[in-house]
Every structure is written in structure tokens, then in C-alpha cells.
Amino acid sequence: MPVIGPDLLQVPVDGATDGATMPLYGWLAERLAEYLEVPGDDLPAKGALNEVASRFLAQGGELEDIYPAIKSIVPPKDRFPTPEPLLQLARIRPFKLFVTTTFGPMLERALNEVRFGGQPRTRVFSYAPNAVQDLDQPLDAMDRPVVFHIFGRLSAVPDYAVTDEDTLEFVYSLQSESHRPNLLFDELSKAQLLLIGSSFPDWLARFFLRIARRERLWMARGKSDIVADAHMRDDPNLVAFLQRFSSRTKIFQSGGALEFVEELSRRWIERHPEAEHGAAVSPPPDTGARVIGDPLEMLPGSIFLSYASEDRPAVDSLRQQLEAAGVDVWFDRKALEAGDDYEAKIKRNIENASLFVPILSRNTLTTRRRFFRIEWDHAEKIAVQVSVNQRYILPVVIDDVSPGDPAIPERFRKINWVRVEPGTPSPDLVAILRQLFRDYQRQMATTP
User: Fold this and answer.
1) Less packed terminus of the chain by CB within 10 Å, N or C?
2) C-alpha separations of 218 from 185, 244, 390 in Å
3) Are residues 240 and 107 in the same domain?
4) Is 294 a member of any domain?
5) Rounded CA separation 149/170 (Å)
């Protein structure tokens, strides 16, 4: 089972004509320093993002500003080609569960390109201390590849590890009895792990190898893990520890992560020559699984926009304005037909939203049975659980609907509304929603 780290995320050097590459995280660190207006020179080869974040905090910056900043500078998928090492791993079909310590989408993109002709069929799970997620079934029962982000996934809220302190918090949560992703750990304990390019420091490498076993390291039998990481290989203390207490853990000596994947790929193709040019397989039947590209998927902490389908153009305009301001937004773009599974996913998104924004218009006054009323009703139930100091529902009116109209829920009628012109820039509304979103970020960053 491969455990993928940032060393495999190589991108072309800007302006290079010789095919030179650099780590994506180094590329991000340079642009993050520029974005946050902190010195970006002399960044370390490892931990560059942590160093930029530390410099920003040392200058009096706010921690919660770092995560939306990273989200805003992450390049779009057409900015860089999918790294070849990830494509090479994706071609090795027996690999089914990929654990990644990175927060970006490149690994699932590689799997989709190689195995599904670019269709978004890879299943994706993401762990965070405040948004605990585990595998939903044993690996043997899964019919498609899985990517598990063990240190969180990119968003505008602090639900992924950027700093060393973030990593420490994730590790603390992972070993908590109430926050453990038990099914994931079960799979880790059964598999032979390939730790590829994670650049774990000594303490984290020891911890990770230990949680992947059911017993103490020196007692482990029948399980040999492989470390393919130049940083870990060159740490004499870690090497000595493994030799004495985890002798079944083997360290790749002929290079780093890139060389290991290259050699692994060469041997795989040598034994399975059809894999080199194998055609993408057809996607399996949809079983309701939560996959990348699923229109029902929502990043935790997003602003949930609830609307009548007739108002979709106006809502999409608002969504674009909010995303341009660094705010995570969700709304149902495809208006799928309702059903038990559909309704359950929508309700889960409402529960995980930072803010519920019902878009009110004459179209929402209809006497017809409409699904958005189920969303409204569930949001009202969640609002009762929210602290009185936190705003959770903010109605937005896009035409001449009256606040006293009896078709509007009583709770909505009692809340101050914001009225905007549909299809036109709404800087005041964007500023209000962005501030409420940032307030939620701060709460997430400080709540245990």
C-alpha cells in the first residue's frame, strides 16, 4: 500500500527549457511568501510551507489567514501536467488504497487519468481533527481506487496540515480513541507499506510505522514495510532505530522517492507489458459512493447556497464572486432528482456548512412541492444547535419578495435580510459572507 508524500509532486520550473522540475510545495511556498508579504528567500528544501507560515506569524499575521491564502494560490489543474511518478504508481493496478500526506488533488487526478480516461471516479476520503472521516467499508469491498488524505485536504478553513503544529495536532487526534479512523488503521496494519517521499521527521516516521502495526515494532511478524525517502534514509538516528527495533522495515538505498517509483514502474511493466499502454477501464456502476467530481460533495465549512432551480444563474453569479474572494461555496449545480441517498447527502452538507444562505425570490413562494424546503427545514434544526454568538442562517433576497410573506419560514422572517440585484456585482454581500466565513475559520482554528 503506497503512502505518498510531497516529494512525488514535481512541477516544471518556471521558464526552464531543459525539463527541470521542482517540488510543488516549494513552488507554493515561494508564492505564499509573496502573497503574505513575508521574506521568501533562503527557504529550506524541506518544510518550506511551514517556514513561510512561521515568518508570517512572527510578523504578527493571523493563523487563519494562511489556509485561504494557500487555496487561492494553488494552481488550476491545467497549470501543470500530472507528475509522471504519480501516473507511474496509478498504472500499477493492484494498488487500490493510496494514503497521502499531501492536501492537493494531483494523486486522484493521476488515478482518474490512468484508470478512468479522466472521468472523476476515484473515491476520496479526508481526515481532520474537527472533521473526522474514516473509510466507509473494508478495502476488499471497494470497487474502485481510493485516496485517503490523512493530514487533511485543501480548503479555505484550517482542516489540513500546513505547519508543524498542524501536523502535531493531527497526530494527537489520530491516536485519540474517539477520533481514530479505525477502518483505515485496520487496512494499514494488514498491508506492506511503501512510504514514498513523505519526508517525515524522525518522530513522525516512528509514530507512523507504529500505528500501522497491531503490536510493538520489535514484535511485528510477516510484515515488511519499505521506506523510499532520501530525507529519512539520511537520518542516522532514525536508521539506527529501525535497525534495532524494526528490522523488517527496509530502506531503499539506491536513491530517493523518484528513483524508487521509476524502478518500481520499470519492474511492473517488465512483468506486465500490457500495463504500459493499457486502455482506461470503464467506470463501474454508480453505487452512490462519494467521489471526486460528485456534484453532492462539499468541502467541510463551505457556505451552503439554497435556492429554487429557476434562480440558478443568479446564484451561480454569487458563487463566482464568493470564490474569487477566497470563500468555499457549495450549491447543487445539477439539480439531481431527490431520493433517500440524495437527501441524506444534502443534509450532511448542511450540517457541515459554516453558513446557510437561502436565496429568496418569487420562485420560492410557489405552492408546488420543492426540495429546497427540505433544505430550509433541516437548516432550521441545525440553527438551534449553533451558539447564539454565531450567525448560521443569512437570507438573501434577489427580487421584491416581502419579509412578511407567509410562504417564508418564520425563523427566516425574523432574521435581517440582505437584498441584492441578481446578476450584478454584490460587494457588500460578499464582504458580509466573507467575514462570517472568516469568523467560522477562526472558531475552527481555536476550538479543540
Assistant:
1) C
2) 19, 8, 50
3) yes
4) no
5) 12
